[in-house]
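Anyone up for a design puzzle?
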């Protein structure tokens, strides 16, 4: 089991589980691994979100990289997908994103991408962990990462041009104007706050934006993809055609239709599978979804002749399954959507652009794009815990078994420890909404240890 890296990088409380010393050490290893260890100079590109601690970690990473002889290119506040784009478009050896995505501002994280803009393999991640723990060895001897000296010390280069190039790339993806559309954006006071507005305004849309005043401590604070209530109200009050909420690092998107109703990743997959098939881009008439996706999505897609490949949770796993089975579309209920034609990681702005293309092609209201999608009642909960092993406790197993017996094959339960937070996630799904709520509540009580005697 990884000590530092979870499903989405190295994440924890800034200054506690994730410190400037950690960031410096990660930079030292990456600068050496992609540079001197291969007989060349490493070029790394770094982006960050708007958390106050992101500046601390950015400078520490840059110091570690340059101390190992690497050149660090700084994109400043920018999205995860923009760093992925820069890594693969400008021949960088690796990309680094400082962000804790949808987490509260006190957390932070380090995501590392390879030269193709893909999440690092477990093999390389394991080497970083070995270095951080002093267990990196070669031929039985501990590996020493040397410091560069003299002219071999690396440089720090301002690379805001990379962010501007990415913005132009996004604008170029849209086949037509969005003039006449009134769109709401919730940028979570995060890294998409500047880019998203520029892109949609450049395409002619009338933009109404919230979550665009970051102060270092308000990222994801009552806004963004995990808290779309303010965006829902904005869409209703202003009579907008659509709304899009992003997370802290801009790789997720949750939609709001013209009625103010939330459309999550399942709804987006349904909309885009139809759009891509009509435009000839749905390779093999199949999509990739995760075990968290609603069973109704799978049934609804199958009724349209579209197959679904199911994988574990995490956008990296979605991308890997897409690559293995040749699918052009995949995603998670949380709003990580990957459109294989243009990206190899989730990009919330690209997702919003493609949904708008589907809307423009239909000529109708957003809600009409969901015609034929029949979702089952589903209740989800995230339970804070000190020890994520609570997910496998006997009390929890007993409540899960009880729920499954009640469902009698017509529902399902999923309990799993989060890979990014100290929480256990619970999903309960069955045809009876009340039964879902009661079963979920019982499992949550079991996770908390709040079991009543019968």
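Challenge accepted. My sequence:
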């Amino acid at each position: 089991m990884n000590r530092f890296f979870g499903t989405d990088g190295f994440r924890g409380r800034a200054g506690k589980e994730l410190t400037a010393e950690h960031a410096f050490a990660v930079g030292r290893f990456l600068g050496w691994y992609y540079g001197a260890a291969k007989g060349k100079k490493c070029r790394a590109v770094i982006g960050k979100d708007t958390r106050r601690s992101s500046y601390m970690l950015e400078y520490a990473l840059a110091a570690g990289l340059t101390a190992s002889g690497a050149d660090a290119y700084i994109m400043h506040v920018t999205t995860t997908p923009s760093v992925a784009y820069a890594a693969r478009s400008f021949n960088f050896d690796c990309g680094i994103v400082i962000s804790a995505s949808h987490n509260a501002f006190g957390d932070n994280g380090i995501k590392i991408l390879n030269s193709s803009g893909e999440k690092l393999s477990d093999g390389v991640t394991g080497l970083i962990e070995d270095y951080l723990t002093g267990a990196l060895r070669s031929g039985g001897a501990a590996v020493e990462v040397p410091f560069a000296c003299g002219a071999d010390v690396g440089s720090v280069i301002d690379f805001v041009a990379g962010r501007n190039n990415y913005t132009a790339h996004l604008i170029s993806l849209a086949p037509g104007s969005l003039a006449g559309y009134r769109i709401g954006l919730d940028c979570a006071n995060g890294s998409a706050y500047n880019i998203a507005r520029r892109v949609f305004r450049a395409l002619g849309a009338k933009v109404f934006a919230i979550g665009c005043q970051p102060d270092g401590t308000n990222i994801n604070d009552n806004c963004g993809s995990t808290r779309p209530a303010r965006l829902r109200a904005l869409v209703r009050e202003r009579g907008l055609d659509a709304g899009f909420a992003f997370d802290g690092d801009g790789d997720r998107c949750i939609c709001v239709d013209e009625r103010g109703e939330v459309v999550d990743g399942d709804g987006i997959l349904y909309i885009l599978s139809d759009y891509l098939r009509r435009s000839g881009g749905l390779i093999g008439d199949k999509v990739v979804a995760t075990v968290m996706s609603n069973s109704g999505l799978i049934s609804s897609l199958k009724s349209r002749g579209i197959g679904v490949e199911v994988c574990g949770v995490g956008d990296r796993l979605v991308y890997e399954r897409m690559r293995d089975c040749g699918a052009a579309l995949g995603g998670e209920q949380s709003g990580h959507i990957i459109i294989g034609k243009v990206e190899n990681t989730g990009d919330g702005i690209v997702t919003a652009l493609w949904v708008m293309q589907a809307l423009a092609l239909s000529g109708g209201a957003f809600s009409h794009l969901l015609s034929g999608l029949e979702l089952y009642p589903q209740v989800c909960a995230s339970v804070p815990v000190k020890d994520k092993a609570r997910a496998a406790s006997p009390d929890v197993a007993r409540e899960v078994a009880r729920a499954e017996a009640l469902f009698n094959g017509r529902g399902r339960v999923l309990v799993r420890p989060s890979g990014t937070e100290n929480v256990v996630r619970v999903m309960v799904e069955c045809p009876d909404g009340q039964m879902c709520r009661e079963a979920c509540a019982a499992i949550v009580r079991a996770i908390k240890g709040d079991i009543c005697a019968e």
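A detail worth pointing out: The chain is about 35% helix and 20% strand.
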